Structures
1.
Amino acid sequence: MDVVWTDLHRHQNPKLEINLGQPIPTYERAERAETIRRQLETDARFRFVGLEEHGRAPIEAVHDHGLIDYLETAWPQINRATGRSEFAPEAMLHVGLRDGMSAARPPHGAAAAFGYWCYETATPMVEGTYLAARASVDVALTAADKVLAGASSSYGLCRPPGHHAARSVFGGFCYFNNAAVVAHHVASTTGTKVTVLDVDYHHGNGTQQIFYDRDDVQFVSLHGNPNRAYPWFIGHEDETGAGKGAGTNLNVVFEAEAEDDEYVDRLGIACESIAGFGPSMVIVSLGLDTYWNDPISDLALTTDGYRRCGEVVKQLGLPTVVLQEGGYDIEAIGRNAHAWLSPFV
Ligand SMILES: [Zn+2]
């Protein structure tokens, strides 16, 4: 199995996130990806390959151009204005702020505009954020190229992750939605249907938003109930798609402490829905924060449970691109990624 990798992820190196109002060491750190790389390197069945650049166009196809421009240009202005080496927003655009009025416009200052384009406080910007976020998209697209060229599966070791980034807003450690860029790219260039299967602990709100009214991309997400889990305001089971996309969005929510057997059973049922949709490719948003010891989540999967999950998805018999999303128990993340991927090699 090809593993697409780049050192450029190391340019995304913030030290802090604002968590419940307090600055804490960020959970989304470079060591996550490095640990997975070291683990997969011990198994010769995984072949490491570099990324190929795909330019801005595939990102422009799913994200607001203003969002891309902001991420590309804001850092020098913020750094000049604040003197800080990393930055998170002070005020964010709330839906009630201009209730009954025309839509808000982004403020001119890049520091103030942060809260126009970002919806929370755990997703800071540093000097290398844009470089790393662009590289992460290229890792995902390169992984998809391998499958489009005939491989049965591939793995993009994406960092930063992507599934919380919506069309015109970023957050949740995510800047560009890697899985959504790939899904749109594959659906639009092949004229076939595609499924994004998101197994991160947190609902893939960005991916759902981007494809909510489309009938060519199915979104299936298994995640902690948003009544008690980030991203809080989206990801309920009664969100099933709209317009042409009615019926193409499937949310499966879990209560705390759910274990392997329940998870594998419900993943199997979700896969029946995928088979019914009839996609030409499955893009997996692979989060490993459903692990029992994850520091920010509350499910209870084990390393062997991940192997079983990979087995269930493999049994779909569809070309599969696996893209890394979350997972914050750094001690375990390498062997958990290896376990999930092992049925595919
Ligand atoms: Zn997550």
Note: The longest strand covers residues 217-224.
2.
Amino acid sequence: MLIFNKLEYGDYQTPLNFCEKVVNIIQKEVNPSIILEPTFGIGNFIKATNQKFDRVKKIYGIEINKEYFEKVQDITSKFIGYNENIFEFNHKNIINNIDKNDELLIIGNPPWITNSQLMMKELANLPKKNNFKKLKGFESITGASNFDICEYIILDLLNQYSDINASIAMLCKTSVVTNIIKEINKYKFKISNIKMYLFDAKKVFGVNCEACLFFAKIDNICEKTVDVYNIENPNDLIYKFGWKQNKFYSNFEMIDSNVDGKFPIEWRQGIKHDCSKIMELRLINNKYFNGLKEEVEVESNLVYPLLKSSDLKKNYIDKSDKFVIVTQNKVKQDTTYIAEDSPKLWNYLNKNKEKLDSRKSSIYNNAPAFSIFGIGDYSFYKYKVAISGFYKKPNFVVLSSNEKSIMLDDTCYFIGFEKEKDAIITMTLLNSQKVQDFLYSIAFLDKKRPYTKEVLMRIDLPKIIEDTNFCTFQSMLNQYNIEKTITEDDYREYKNIFIN
Ligand SMILES: C[S@@+](CC[C@H](N)C(=O)[O-])C[C@H]1O[C@@H](n2cnc3c(N)ncnc32)[C@H](O)[C@@H]1O
């Protein structure tokens, strides 16, 4: 008998009472004659739909686990089950039995796991690559290194049933719905009446993630906005998100189109080195120690102060006790110069060459020894404004150094300045309520990294400068207890840089 790994097969069965709650909600939207449960498990959605929808003629289901498949056979005589792998299933088996007058409801809860989680654990419940490529509209997923199996299954179903009078109701992570809507213009299918009902995944499945019931009608017109509710109050709209005038927003209510534009400087990500134990040092009693707690005696010219996401909580930082070895001034620079410039550092790096050479990411293949990424002229500004990509509340911080530039790790984003005053003004404006509200309207807080370069590049800094007079600016700056003076002339000068 085949043993099914719970994680690999996303084997978290939906409790019957929760299936009934879902069916009660969508009952207002659909009256199906045919049901499809694409990964039916122990069959609770089959039971719930069979009880509630009296017009139903047939209930189709697919499930890979034979034990479950056999259990479900006698729920109803309307049931036609397939003990098959959804990734290999031929949907013509079902489509050929649906006629024009039928209304199909696709309902269920596909496995929630990402391909990289599966690959890391050497598990194989994945769509075949060649099958992937045959499906239209999947470029975005195949192109991405990481995708959710659940997202793949939902997109596949929307594609397969795109010509059928059908609706879909699926339990999934909220990020799956966000991704689908964000990429909606790429797909061949069209959907309308798109809704997301949030629920507590910890309570229902004992898992920690933002989850929802995703509902949509497969249609000839494509709506690109989602109405968000809580499953406990399914009639009270909480907010809407999606596309508006060719722009994507995470919350329509907070939109301030006045702030939506293009940032005049390129936001950069911090340094990526994938070997913190060797490349990151701490200064304790004037001695450097690495992540293996070994004392490291190296020249300090290529050792720079470092800040990480968790350090970016204040608004002005001018020192750090963390350090990073910066082996290059720009990406792919030959590193052999270190042997002459910093012989002790060269020895240290060579001593740890094996660890550095075994870094997994393919970016290190064919790159000079001890390479780092996220490095360029822009890294060496003495004054920066930085933000963590990881925290839900966007907090902009001035980094100021009269000596060596403070570096950031790759969880952070930053812009550089020649003058400290310009960095202070920028930080103040970016922390204004207007910008914060705007960021909440475009960033997805359920993502691991809500603030990305794409999000930050949408802030229209010149517009904000234009709308903020010196008096308002001063009162904003006063909140920060930064003992630096910005005069009206400084502010005017700053304005002149960004507003022509
Ligand atoms: C999250 S459970 C949900 C089961 C059921 N839909 C429910 O809501 O209770 C996911 C189900 O998908 C099944 N499954 C996982 N991979 C599959 C595959 N490749 N083909 C078909 N079924 C699969 C698992 O065996 C499991 O029963």
Note: The pocket of S-adenosylmethionine is lined by residues 4, 9-14, 39-41, 44-45, 62-65, 68, 85-87, 108-109, 111, 125 (CB under 6 Å).
3.
Amino acid sequence: MKKAFLLGRGISNSLSPAIQNAAFRKLRINAAYELEDLNRRSFASFFSSLSISDTIGFNVTSPFKEEIMSYLTAIDPRSKSIGAVNTVKIIDNQIGGMMGFNTDYDGIFAALRRLGCLRESAKQKSAVVLGAGGASRASIYVLLNNGYSNLTILNRTVSKARVLSKRFESLFPKSEIEIAPLTEAKFAKSIENCGLIINTISKSNSRYFPLKKLDLSRIASKTAVFDLGYKEESTFLKTARRSGLKTIDGLLMLVTQAAKSFEIWTGRKAPFDLMMATAKSVLQHSV
Ligand SMILES: NC(=O)c1ccc[n+]([C@@H]2O[C@H](COP(=O)([O-])OP(=O)(O)OC[C@H]3O[C@@H](n4cnc5c(N)ncnc54)[C@H](OP(=O)(O)O)[C@@H]3O)[C@@H](O)[C@H]2O)c1
């Protein structure tokens, strides 16, 4: 039996094993998807003990989406531009080659299309991205690659937002990317003229989330809000929904990125509806 893995830290509640194993079973692929909960040191040693010939590939999540790139023999051009990889395919068992992809891109694209944010009229306005981690990188790239040119990145650690603004302004010279700390005042100012807010902050329901009083009163009524979380509706998304804004959580993104990873590993069409039903069922039984 071949193996596929999710490499990350604090991933014990991940839905990915259920989603991927349901797909393997449905297509009668003799493979099992397993979790590898790693820290920085065990991440490095994972590769020395990996049996390449027994592995189909793996997913990579926080905090390793950037670090993984130095272990790969090839990276597809889109993922190289994003600067983060969440899917690795074993490409050549003889030499042990590994190729990296970013299927978060496909997931984010699907969510934005569902929200209607990829229509020409929507792109005239600016977009605000909360966070500057791996998922933020992919979100910013999807936006710029699909016609948005005016972005604001708000992040707790401003230096990380600066790294992203420099990177993406040089990749997309017509773009204008503002950065600011993630404070209530900066948030209120930056949403005034925006048409889309993407929240990529992890654990935004925690008491450490800096936007306590979410003032959406100055936001345009057609603004759309995408929150990448999917386990429980974040206070952020709930407030946006109750304010009458168009909203979407991260479930469609999660299943789309998983389906794309499956297709990269197996070369077969992923059973998307089954994967979505499995994700919904696991979520339902975990509350
Ligand atoms: N739906 C999906 O398919 C999908 C896919 C990928 C990711 N996600 C979700 O997206 C989120 C981000 O993932 P990631 O890979 O980008 O993670 P990451 O690289 O670790 O980035 C985490 C981001 O959250 C910020 N943050 C964390 N704790 C914070 C706090 N207490 N206050 C303020 N900011 C805080 C970090 O700010 P600093 O830079 O200041 O540390 C950083 O911007 C996670 O919740 C993940 O589950 C969902």
Note: The pocket of NAP is lined by residues 62-63, 65, 104, 107, 131-136, 155-157, 160, 182, 200-203, 206, 208-210, 228-230, 250, 253-254, 257 (CB under 6 Å).
4.
Amino acid sequence: MPRAIVGYDRVRHVLDAEGESSYGDAVADKTGPAGLQARAVRFGYLDGTDVLHDVAFDVEPGRTVAVVGPTGSGKSTLVSLLVRLVDPASGAVLLDGVDVRDFRHGGVAASAALVPQQAFLFDDTVRDNITLGLDVSDDEVRAALATAQATEFVDRLPLGLDTQVGERGTSLSGGQRQRIALARALVRRPRLLVMDDATSAVDPRVEAAILAGLRDGGGGPSTVVVVAYRKATIALADEVVFIEDGRVTARGPHADLVTTSAGYRRLVDAYERAARDREQAEAVRAAEAADAARTGNAADADDADDADEEVPA
Ligand SMILES: Nc1ncnc2c1ncn2[C@@H]1O[C@H](COP(=O)(O)OP(=O)(O)OP(=O)(O)O)[C@@H](O)[C@H]1O
Ligand SMILES: [Mg+2]
């Protein structure tokens, strides 16, 4: 009882919290892909040092922009500002020309969806993890799953959409969890889709299929901002924003940046090498599993398909 009371008290504090964000009265009633601008955005966490300095870029409606940069350079911080999880210390983020702080409560969420770097799944069914209480039909859920390249594995689950995924989705692989999280964003038909390294654990071929589907308008016409590591993904974007140490140090199409920015070229080459090493390791593992299957050890063979378990270091 005492433990339950303490727990209840904590939950109540969260539920009763008013939050510190203030809202305006702009209504998010536009349709079609959203336009996005970051203007002189500066941001620091509570410890005081600035993580983003004077970050500025525009994304035209319907375009796909890749955000690329070394670890710790501020990519996740930047994308959390774009969907107003946090506000800049100075500068502004504009959605369709409107400062995101001027929208009504819920306005930004109605237009923009973030697929975070760490997908969080609830101990609930696949369906409820995708809808999160939004009133959508199973057809819409299935369309989102199709764009997220998740139809096949969801259909193979014992109860399909009604399968319980377990605490934090432990019954699924990393890549499967990421695809459920993507479907959760897509079912909301965002006009701005922001993916923070959201397909890192997905097989590269599947990732390419997801991006191709997004480009063709699966999940509705959308502007896409994607934090990306794979060259193939980056090359699919119309433009790259290269961030180092919280500053945009280069911008432009991938093909241009590899010639104009030495830092960018070094980073992308390093990603490429890491990906090749991983693929080789995976091929060895698959061969071993196939061997194991031939000698009658079926449990290992099952793992061979699940290349998407792999999470890059
Ligand atoms: N909640 C936080 N509180 C304090 N500092 C933070 C917080 N989140 C991130 N940082 C710091 O801000 C900087 C940028 O972090 P961020 O997560 O945005 O980088 P990133 O580019 O997304 O890195 P990665 O490629 O590893 O995901 C880092 O120095 C990090 O330590
Ligand atoms: Mg990050």
Note: Residues 32-309 form a domain with the Rossmann fold fold (CATH 3.40.50.300).
